[in-house]
Amino acid sequence: MDAELFNELKDSIRQMKAIEAGELAPTRVRVVNPQNEVATARMKLGMTQEAFAKLLDTPVGTVRGWEQGRRQPPPSAKVLMRVATKYPEQVLECAEDPGDYGNRRS
Hints:
- The chain is mainly alpha-helical.
- The chain folds into 2 domains: 1-30; 37-100, 434 Repressor (Amino-terminal Domain) (Orthogonal Bundle), CATH 1.10.260.
- Helices cover 58% and strands 0% of the residues.
- The chain is elongated.
């Protein structure tokens, strides 16, 4: 192993230990929202990401981005997700053809 690379790795380990001990602030902080309303709504509907994306008429990559916190859904989608969380059966009932949103989980 290259000596320079080895020293960088040792420095990284020292920094990691200092951050864990509270002696050093991390350079990046990633906040994960355990109460992700997108995933909650999707699970209440019993749908896969693909089926949920189809229901919302949006790309599955967008739904994944919302669930992973990389992007925020627009206000209209947030309202629909809150409604879906409270009234999942009614949302499916109001969909054009609930059978079109296959991949439902039982």
